[in-house]
Amino acid sequence: MKIETFDSVWDALEATPEAAQNMTLRCDLMIALEEYIKENALSQAQAAKIFGVTQPRVSDLVRGKIDLFSLDSLINMAVAAGMKVELRISRRTPRDGHDNKKTAAR
């Protein structure tokens, strides 16, 4: 049995490094938005009003339906809540590449 290791779950699940990075960023934003809701003890209706979306949209967020959200929509929600979104870009080292260690039993 060959064991592969991945740097992130998205590297294991997505077909390309671009898709994996996109999913990682969307996941990070969704987590930050959910933490904002919890820290402020908001109902979904209250969060929806703050984020500028509908309550069912917030329900999708807290239920982790990542496929229903684009980076743009998540950034818009975060900014509407008064959050600052920053992007840090760095060059990949050979160890950071998509074809580096992978972990999964095959």
TrEMBL record:
Keyword Lipid biosynthesis: no
InterPro entries: Cro/C1-type_HTH, HigA2-like_HTH, Lambda_DNA-bd_dom_sf
MF terms (GO), sorted A to Z: DNA binding
UniProtKB keywords: DNA-binding
Start and end residues of each HTH cro/C1-type domain: 33-88
Coiled coil feature spans: none
Record has Nucleus as a keyword: no
Listed name of the protein: Predicted DNA-binding protein, contains XRE-type HTH domain
